[in-house]
Amino acid sequence: MRYQQLIFDVDNTLLNFSAGETVALTTLFEKHGIAPTPSLVAAYQRYNTSLWRQIEAGTLTKDELFAKRFVTFFKEQLGQTVGPEVDQEYLGYLGTQHELMPGAMAMLKQAQRLGYQLGIITNGVAKVQKSRLSESGLAPLFSSVLVSETVGVEKPDPVIFERFFATSEVAPEQSIMIGDGLPSDIVGAHKAHLASVWYNPRRVANTSGVTPTVTVADHQELTDLLTQWAHA
């Protein structure tokens, strides 16, 4: 077997974060009497992505994000004043969203049958991520789940990978990181000297300057690759 352990990202790799985010935002806006237009949702998503890129770059902390995210967005986009507690309201809605990416469950079950050990390293809020993994039925498949909030560092910081392997029964050289995020998953794996699979269903261009070990477009392609490796 070429690799013994598969380490997965969660959002937009196993669970459809984009769809869940849209539902959570729609609920939040409607609760506050705001029409959740596609342009408003898209504006928030761009803004939120920019904040998470700052976190990944180490120029913004998660506490700072929670304190300013909706406070700033509501003021600049809607001319409304809200407190930081709106962020916790949103996270509550987000924690109930657990739509699977197409083919993800079948891929994971086949990986288990092939004898791979499965783990997770995900950026995010621990209670939200663990709730979504549990509600989706994914949680029992994984022997180890590490959420960035619990260790105080985010991918691509190699420290989060070091923390994962501190309790892993499988060595880094026998493990591979699988995720959709170039700046977080693939760059993080590179910094941690790990092999990587870039899950790229949208077939976007790689502008990260880092080359993944392999790129796949869907979970069937990944399943075929895992089967090939298992019999290598």
TrEMBL record:
GO MF: 5'-nucleotidase activity
Pfam families: Hydrolase
Domain of life per record: Bacteria
Protein name: YjjG family noncanonical pyrimidine nucleotidase
Organism the protein comes from: Limosilactobacillus fermentum (Lactobacillus fermentum)
